[in-house]
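Entry:
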Amino acid sequence: MATSVSSLSLSSSRTLSYALTPVSSKPEAPVVLLSNSLAAPFPTWDHVVPKLTSRGFGVLRYDHPGHGASSVPVDLSSTTLETMADDVRELLNHLSISRVHAWIGVSMGAATGIVFAAKYPGIIEKLVVCNTISCSPLRAGDIDIFEPMVREAKETDSMDQTVQSILERWFGLAWMNANPDETRRMRQIMLTTSIDGFETCCAALRSDTFDLLPLAEKAGQGIDDALFIVGENDTDLPEYMLPLRDGIQRGLKEKDSQASIRFEVIKNAGHVSYIDGYDQFIAVITEFLRQ
């Protein structure tokens, strides 16, 4: 059955763009939700979707504010991970989906999944957390990498250079030169992110309210199982994601003393490892989903 691309008018008066790809032979198939990174609208998952539907899972994708066809709030500073989690709750209600077999989130999408699991326990069965920081640069005492990118996009009135910089950070020039078709596809999709959309989502990532560690244990209590995935080449994230994993595992163990979390490193991959680490990424998530 073909993917259905639709839009939902949210209670906030914004529009949320989403795509639901069901399994034609299984109308009631369990649903896997895919949640995107900053500046990566949902078509970036196009190669992943058929791998999931062929294994009997329906796939739900959606776009963050100002990404793809999703609109932005009037106040660009008002977006938080919590408001993005609330958007997904409205979407699931709209589609009458009471239980999500898995939430697979990358970067900002992974962070949103943790916030969602903590706020709305019992909806996500399996949580896959990929390549995410655990708090804003302000909270971490680090350099704010988001503000200069927003400033560049606004000053040039274009996302072109910003997208190029992100591609180079995610994949590196060597991979991009070796994979020109996939690089071109990613660039075209990423350029459907508006400047306002980039700014409002960066506001969420820069916010003092962005801190996952205090939510991790509660998130673990709200799910049944979890998997952490990180790209081998994604700066220091393989190490920095460990405290987040440990917090979620504490929550899981409160429900089941035997619970444990797998932590998988995708070889030779960067920040968006379902692209440059595709084969291993698919192998890891499909094994996890059928457990």
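The mean pLDDT is 95.
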